[in-house]
Amino acid sequence: MPKRSEEMLTDVWTSLLLVWITCVPYTSMTPIISQSKSLQTGSTALLRGLVEGQRILSRAKRGWVWNQMFVLEEFSGPDPILVGRLHTDLDVGSTPIKYVLAGEGAGTIFAINEITGDIHAMKRLDREEKAEYTLTAQVTNRDTDQPLEPPSEFIIKVQDINDNPPQFVEGPYRASVPEMSQVGTSVTRVTATDADDPVYGNSAKLVYSILEGQPYFSIDPNTAIIKIALHGMDREMREEYLVVIQAKDMGGHMGGLSGTTTVTVTLTDVNDNPPKFSKSLYEFVIPEELGIGQPGGKVKANDRDIGENAKSTYNIIDGDEKDVFEITTDAQTQEGILRLKKPLNFETKKSYTLKVEAANIRFDPSSGAPFKDTATVKIAVEDSDEPPVFSKPTFVLQVDENAPINTVIGTVTARDPDVTGSLVRYFIDRHTDLERQFNINVDDGKITLAKPLDRETDMWHNITVTATEIRNHSQISRAIVAIRVLDINDNAPEFATEYEAFLCENGKPGQVIQTVSAVDKDDPIQGHYFEYRLIPEMLNNPNFTIKNNGDNSISVLAKHDTFRRQKQEMYFLPIIVTDNGNPPMSSTNTLTIRVCGCSREGIVQSCNVEAYVLPIGLSMGALIAILACIILLLVIVVLFVTLRRHKNKPLIIKDDEDVRENIIRYDDEGGGEEDTEAFDIATLQNPDGINGYLPRKDIKPDLQFMPRQSGGPNGVDVDEFINVRLHEADNDPTAPPYDSIQIYGYEGRGSIAGSLSSLETASSDSDQNYDYLREWGPRFRRLGELYSVGESDKET
User: Fold this and answer.
1) Burial, 32: exposed, middle or buried (Cβ in 10 Å; 0-12, 13-18, 19+)?
2) Residues 6 or more apart from 666 whose CB is under 8 A from it?
3) Is 390:413 a contact under the CB 8 Å cutoff?
4) What is this protein for, i.e. what is its function (predicted)?
5) For residues 213 and 524, which has the higher predicted lDDT (pLDDT)?
6) What is the DSSP string of 736-748?
7) b/e per residue, 489-506, with b = 16+ CB within 10 A?
8) Among the ranges 39-43, 518-522, 535-539, which has the highest mean pLDDT value?
9) Sign of the CA dihedral 146, 148, 152, 158?
């Protein structure tokens, strides 16, 4: 038989064998597996012998024979479950053998009977935790534990049962789809997972269905894709839907496990609704004094869409005088705001009619719907009391600077634009005319001159004129009046600066000493032209002459070269300058010319007369040094005299340094009566401590007025002590004539007056008799009555 046919027969035989293994009970599966050869090799050899028609006399010896190893998960019977049995050809009864099991779970999950080779599962198994176990079997001598055959490896597979329901790990879901989508439009896809074996049986075969959400949505049972099932789903009617999805295993058949999840589907907005005005006619009343750019009214077109689809823009598409108004869109409220572009005038036009359009910014051209709406706006202009209106916003007037007082400069005019036409009065805002140089006629607006003007001081005067209605003073208008002061020739020309010329002694005749120019505060229209000349008394000046340069300047020239400083150090040259005004104005200006010593190149070196001041030939530096020394000596002398006078100053103590007139505060509290070191007050308590003498601190001591020493006993007569001090003060010619209060802390001893305190008195008020007060006359009668009443009250 050809080789191709032999391979086909081998595959058929292998398939039949696998089918038989699957169909028979697990415990009766007894495939023969050789230790050295595989099942496929043995089966191929067997089939090959059958094809060739040869008698099979022998085959390779198999050392192991056992059942196919499978075990059901989650089995929980009272006894361990039999998984299978191991058998070897050596087990013929003559040799004591023992079966040994090793590998994953051996001894804990799986146990083997050493004699029979039966394998039992000792624990409940879960395929989702572990699907198969790899074990090793070996036959040993029971007596010697010596291996009789090499170990063989086999696998015990855990067979799946449907014990896990489907789960939506990513749920719950949220999805969105545009409104008005076509039927069959995909919304989203959900996914459920099943932990059971997807290969064995239908435990992991899932089928999807919708429990809630019909008739709006559908789901593909296999792919779990959710789709639109209803036409014309409008967001404006309902925006959100809750869909409940179920996933069931076992292919959806009865007995299968299921799981559910929710899908929240939101319809997104599309621009399928045009804007719509709430009414077709809007009417507004706007006062005519409304400012430019101010809002005069609002219109609004509502749109059922949201977001960008609901935004609209407003335009004025028709109406009379559309350029008077404009309409803008409020981005926050989506309102159309009507604003003024030009001023309103009730007297000119009293009403306006406009056509306003609202259109969506975004729209779908394929929809064909008109995404716009129109409305009519009628505006009535309300008459207002307007302020006067000047004929021009700015007036420009002119006046000569020499114009007399009360000259009429010009006139400003204003009128009341209202229908009633009130009269107008004119005033000058004095804040713009602080010097009150102008006046205005309140009735006709004529501006007159109040003070003389000087163009050279102020060329322009800007004042503000107000116009006020007579019947309503609050209606005021303002206009600017610019008054230009025209120039007249009222200023004489003068030198541009104070010139001081220098003339060299060795100068040559005709040498230019100084170039002189003039200025004029006036501003003639034809420009300035100055004429220079010497005064008539110096027309034939022997020393100097002038030359016109043709550019409104002159050059002063020397006539000779015999100028000497010793002869004359300085010259004064008066020059008359005349302008070309009408009438011409002139002034006399003096040019000072100093004669100086110069080098050969004509450079000025010195302009003072040193020959006369310093005949011995001292230079200027030496003179300055001598003067500095003299000044230093004078300063030293003054300091010496001042120090001497300060030393001889009498030592008179100032008033603020006299301790008798100052209050000295101490922050320390003191040690009480036991403290004898803080302050010695023995001097105040006993004047004898210093022999009765207290030195004065307000005058300088003098020996001739030393007080006499008291040689009395320790007992001191205070009265005598005070009299002595008083006598010394009265007879002291050096003591200043001021009064002072001397405070003594010594009370004295043995005073015949006794104590003034009433605490030690032996008498009381009750012992007093005030009857003698009545005998003192009528002045003391009332006092006596009062004391008598007091005594009677006490007795009572």
Assistant:
1) exposed
2) none
3) yes
4) Cadherins are calcium-dependent cell adhesion proteins.
5) 213
6) -S-----------
7) bebbbebeeebebebbee
8) 518-522
9) negative
C-alpha torsion angle, residues 575, 579, 584, 587 (rounded to 10) = -30
pLDDT of residue 81: 85
> Does the pLDDT of residue 26 top 70, yes or no?
no
End-to-end CA distance of the chain: 169
646, containing H or E segment: helix 620-647
Angle between helices 39-52 and 3-23 (to 10 degrees): 130
pLDDT of residue 106: 87
pLDDT digits (tens, 9 = 90+) for 85-116: 888 877 777 778 889 999 888 888 888 888 88
Q: What percent helix, strand, coil does the chain show, rounded to 5?
A: 20, 30, 50
Torsions phi, psi of 591, nearest 5? -100, 125
- Side chain identity at residue 661, one-letter code: E
Cβ-Cβ contacts under 8 Å for 763 (sequence gap 6 or more): none
pLDDT tens digits for range 186-195: 999 999 998 8
Q: What is the pLDDT of residues 346-371, one digit of tens each?
A: 878 889 999 999 998 877 665 666 68
> Residue 121: enclosing H or E segment and its boundaries?
strand 118-121
Are 552 and 535 within 8 A, CB to CB? no
